[in-house]
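Example record

The entry below shows one chain as it appears in the dataset: sequence first, then structure tokens.
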Amino acid sequence: MLNEKEFYGYVQEHILEYVREPAGKVVKVQRICKNNQVFMAGMSIGDGKESLQPVLYLEPYYQQYKDGNRFSEILARISADYEECSLGFALEEERIKDYDFIRDKLFFRLVHFDKNREILEFCPYDRIEDLAVTYRWIAYRNEDGMASAMIRRKDLEMWGISEEQIKQDARANTEKMFPSSIKKIENVIPIEIETGNLPIFVLSNGDYMNGASAMVYDKVLYDFASTMGENLYILPSSIHEVILLLERDAGDIRELSYMVKETNRTVVDPEEVLSDHVYYYDRREDKIRIADDAGWTDKM
């Protein structure tokens, strides 16, 4: 059986046997840094001249190989999946240099600061406690997902705009592109959960993708806490959603903190971990802080 590195090499060498119109195509399989400094094997196929190409991550296919699937079936599946994610991805390099084209594609994403410290040295961002608001633009988006790129300071130089401009435009877009959603947890997770009579809520967006960012949307927490007449505790489930508890129902914060850490360690994929901390939201101050920290931080 091939090890992981050998598997990716085999895919790079043979995938063109399964793609349509392979003439002149170049395959690249390279380590790509994802969120939280997690590296994954990303495959792209093109003529070698494009500045941007869709990327398909190969780890799930290696698992299929380990599970006993035949190589021919896996390569055919990789080819079909890559073709599907390539639909609608055609981006001309000149358009990418045009900020008027990029502006409407901007959005922000909430990530852990320390786990992304290295890449953040080159990117505009805002700090919120142990988190960072990062800024990205969407390359394509469809019903199956989307591809996006983090904005770097050298991109700002190319577009001739300031950090404040990119942040302002991204903030204006994000809540429109990814409207927030707050639902009771039993309406989100299709399994029976023993919560007693405690109301537990999930905050995300309609796509349930990068939905933890909704916790810093304008007035989302404020309106919900005001309606409930309670301050809130926020449990970061992942970068895709957070759990909201009313203050009166929170119980022992140390137990909540342990639960978040254990969930991150055993359930959440490393690249999707947001934080090990529980947060407290004060509706009167409209501020978020780490629950065991005496200092306060403006929400955004």
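Notes for this example: DSSP finds ten helices and 14 strands in the chain. Residues 99 and 160 are 8 Å apart (CA to CA).
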